[in-house]
Amino acid sequence: MITAFLPCRKGSQRIPDKNVKPFAGIEGGLLRIKLDQLLACSAIDSILVSSNDERVLDFADKVNDSRVIIDNRPDHLGSSSTTTDELIKYVPSIIKEGHVLWTHVTSPFITEIDYANIIATYFKQLDNGYDSLMTVLKLQGFIWDDKNPISYDRNALKWPMTQNIKPLFEVDSGVFLSSVDNYNQLDDRIGTQPFLLEQPKIKSVDIDWPDDFVFAEELWNKQVKNL
Known about the structure:
Layout: E1 2-7, H1 29-39, E2 46-51, H2 54-61, E3 68-72, H3 84-94, E4 99-103, H4 112-126, E5 132-139, E6 168-179, H5 180-186, E7 194-198, H6 210-226
Helix pairs in contact: 3-5
């Protein structure tokens, strides 16, 4: 059983009303887009919208599909100071069995087709010794900390060809897929052997800052025009 967990906390500080403000002319915005995508994926059995935002809860409650479940999250788990670790510990109290597909409205370019492929890949990789999955963006370039390169050795070659640099992987927060057992045993949304599923850059777009919102709208409109 696959339950999509869709957390939408109240009071985004960087992008006010991020979850439900109009996006590319779409009323209901990112929340509407994500619910439509999740509902269109037949591999998902239920969608748990967890929020302390009345507008999110009201919108989700009006969706005419029994697979949508509302979780009126306690305010202490929906504030700007709430840590992801705290929310992770909360999940198995509302999802008791099966597998949790944790995703976000801020990943609008992950479609129902992508979710189906991600779920299929997850179960395939469970047979290969992995115990969970998370989506990532491959970084293969000149990556530094505040003093030195961390992705290549300048003592060997100051400016190697980027295709010869060993890639690193950025967690893009698109999907974390794991069993409820892992949540209970590890207090984590991944296991000890996660499969890193590389995504194309467009799928890894994560709307976190105002510029991200504007960029994603333009990208969305461009995609629609090309359909």
